[in-house]
Fold each of these.
Amino acid sequence: MNNIFVYCEITEEGYVADVSLELLTKGRSLADELNVKLEAVVIGANLKGIEKEIFPYGVDFIHIADDKKLFPYTTGPHAKLLIKLFKEQKPEIVLFGASSIGRDIGPRIASALKCGLTADCTSLIIGNHEDKKQKKVYKNLLYQIRPAFGGNIIATIINPETRPQIATVREGVMKKEIKSADYKGEIFPIDLNNVFDELDFAVQIIDRHIEKQKVNIKNSQIIVSGGYGVGSKENFQLLTDLADLLGGEVGASRAAVDAGFVPHERQIGQTGVTVRPKLYIACGISGAVQHSAGMDESSKIISINTDPQAPINQIADYTITGSVEEVIPKMIKYYKENSK
Amino acid sequence: MSFKIIVLAKQVPDTRNVGKDAMKADGTVNRAALPAIYNPEDLNALEFALRVKDKMKDAEVIVLTMGPFRAAEIIRESMYRGADRGFLITDRKFAGSDTLATSYAISLAVKKLAPFDLLVAGRQAIDGDTAQVGPQTAEKLGIPQVTYAEELVDITSKDITIKRRLERGVETVKAAFPLAVTVHGSAADCRPRKAKRLMKYKHAKTVTELQNETKDYTHLYNERPYLNIEEWTVDDINADVEALGLSGSPTKVKAIQNVVFQSKDSKVLGTSDEEINDLMKELLDSHIIG
């Protein structure tokens, strides 16, 4: 069996993006299970020393293309290099972040290689498949598990015949874990001579305003999250007060974001970020699957809702039947009086 | 020479308003229980195309959709809002196509309409949320792409300038034609229907729809050729049947699971001071908050 490849995105600040490190971690465990090597691909500019960030995740080979024309990311040259590399290396599995980069380039690669791509996977596991009609058994396929149909169903997708099996995964869905600080691998520079033509650089970047990540709900251990049921921007201030007090962040459901209570960067769920804090306080959130898909792995969930039948109560450890205006001030008061 | 814009639009079940009867007992989706709507980001794409048309002399907006016969509704809706013509790709042989097979079929239909200048599509459709068909089609056509478009900044006869919406900011890019653009939901909303256009295009029909009419309107369609919505089958786009439907789709659905929450043991509390205080004490004692 051939190896597993992870495309590593480079951030504005010149580091490997978190989502890519998370995929390297996942890639390593899949590679161990399949008994194959893990390879990383890095395309960008000024990449000297980048391998030091990558090898510790258990990477055996890194393919590096380092040229000033290759950063910031544009589709043409990155797609050209990946298609060429994958045609030569014939990976078993390729993983991309489900970011504006991964979701831009992934489909082009899959289209060029005529193979399957599954977007926004929430789980990747190895398993077998028996095709009863063809009387054929496929061993060690990648099960690509994702919500579909607006989050109302969970589908397991497989690619029995085509390789590579390509998947994209959102930031925060997989865990990031260093395998070993002194893990050693090999570096292979990608040959850039006579690879590109004019069309690859057809799209020119003329201006960029990329902000540093300000809101960091993904890594927050405590999240106080609000839904449409919070009712107003003013009531959301209560959530902010509680979050500040507990050292957490404010999150929101899509309905609260759509209503203009909170900016989109705080949206949790299928179309926002996925979080797994140790405490998730859901205020006035009914708990549509699209939302709960992004938080149901939280260690403790408290639901504050006037509706005792709210679906989120089924995954909550504590359900408080009441309004945000009544409950949160009481929580704040007790905490102020009793925390050390 | 006229400037040709092709818009890819899809009719989708409204997955945002899923009611209790949306899922059948066996865990499959009950499509009949969901209203069919114009995919929201495809409306943003149509508006993007119409804005290009507003700025270019002698531009034409053609809507291309793939789906069952009733997807012709999407083309009429586009016409009411400003599109000039539309084509419906429809054939049972397309059933079961994944994004790769779909992009193959669409790329062949686009080639039939070539030469064109812009191919515009919504970023993604709400029934799959894959965001794949746009870029996959662009790759098959061998043209560059600009995804996540939010705003048409400028257009000349030579090139187009587009602002893109990324996770953490914006990026402005410039590209020549032909070009594929996928439009983000944060882009301008689509303009509403115009009463005049509604009157003009309400009788726009496909051949299949005309066959179901009780009266013979042949003369009307001869006089006003713009009312004909062409239907294209597998043969019309010269597609290889093996590259379509299930046989042309590398991805297979192994299992579908209806989402049912696993119920945990959950404590139900009221809002009395005592109950809230007990909860907070428990959280403090277990060092969940500190």
Note: Chain A is about 25% helix and 30% strand.
Amino acid sequence: MAKSPINLKVNGKTVEALVEPRTLLIHFLREQLNLTGPHIGCDTSHCGACTVDLDGKSVKSCTMFAVQADGGDVLTIEGMAAADGTLHALQEGFREMHGLQCGFCTPGMIVRAHRLLKENPNPSEDEVRQGISGNLCRCTGYQNIVKAIQYAAAKLSGGALKEAAE
Amino acid sequence: MIPGPFAYHRPKSVAEAVTMLADLGPEARPLAGGHSLIPMMKLRLAVPEHLVDLGWLSELKGVKADGNDIVIGAMTTQHELIADATLAAKLPIIRETALVIADPQVRYIGTIGGNVANGDPGNDMPALMLCLGASYQIAGKGGQRRVPARDFYEGAYMTALSQGEMVTAVRIPVPPAGHGYAYEKLKRKVGDYATAAAAVILTMAQGTVTTCSIGLTNLAETPLWAEDAAKAVIGTSLDAAAVKKAATAAEAIANPASDNRGPAAYRKKMAGVMTARALQRAKSRAK
């Protein structure tokens, strides 16, 4: 099949590429751009490990063709920290609150939580849980993931930081 | 998993899209949100030779009032339905239903047009559309037509759409102000299809039900419009006896398969339970 040209922004950088139409966005990111932060977990759009941000929406990049992201603005976990390496509040929150065990779900969790906090800067615990209901943690470490997101919400809105998890 | 190869087409208008679908023939499929089609393609259960991507057609987006109807463009996403102020004011059952579809990521991408047009009995919007008496605007190369949702579903994945046609909009008559509504969905987890689900719209006057319509999800090869169940409560105060009669009538038309959600007998029973709960919640909301 003829390849299609695509032109998009990934983590702030313009990317031009040729892709087969059947190339999934996750394969394009991981194999053509070497952005291996977004993971392939279930490969059936259930687990959310492949979550990236596209034009202000959290999307499961295993269930989207790269051609559908043409012209778009993509953010992956690799684009979260500042250029000087300073962690994003969410990354810091996951570290401080022990929001990861094996870490496999973490890139998807953080990128999803980023969009959640953009839409709802001060979510209740229930809203956080609903907001990440499309992301599965195989270690079942949800308690600390929720705390990590609340830590980031507080930090981003200038509020007091909660005590670290026991 | 990698889908089979296909040629990708990006029409700039609905007219161009339906011309493409007609000219490319039966191996061409329209691509809406893709959250049903792409998983099928990854499993090679669907191997279309051509995809016509509707994602670039802004004319298929948005919610607008048209007289006493609300018209929703086929490419409007579940996320957009949830956030829409017109729907929240006039048709809040749409938001209630959209919120129990899949998960946040899928709702950003999944569309109402894809949900109703795919003919998947597990999808939630079709039964709601039967309940609301909605109709679907359909475009083909030969022109436009409108089909009532209650006449659209013929079997699992079988609909009134002919080869080359696509749904462009959903038209919903707005129920009277003060109507009661509820969508009750029993599911095992976030993202699951319904074990059983019921949509109810009703109106009440002086404590008596004056109109009622009920739709059932994932309880047969097609969504079900439960006319007898609705008739059982009209003229009643929705007392326990009337609710029980409606639940029994809903169970009578449910014909679910046994699957991982439970044996058929259990799912049939849940058709009644969801109907009863939706009726009671709708009553509590009716003014």
Note: The two ends of chain A are 56 Å apart (CA to CA).
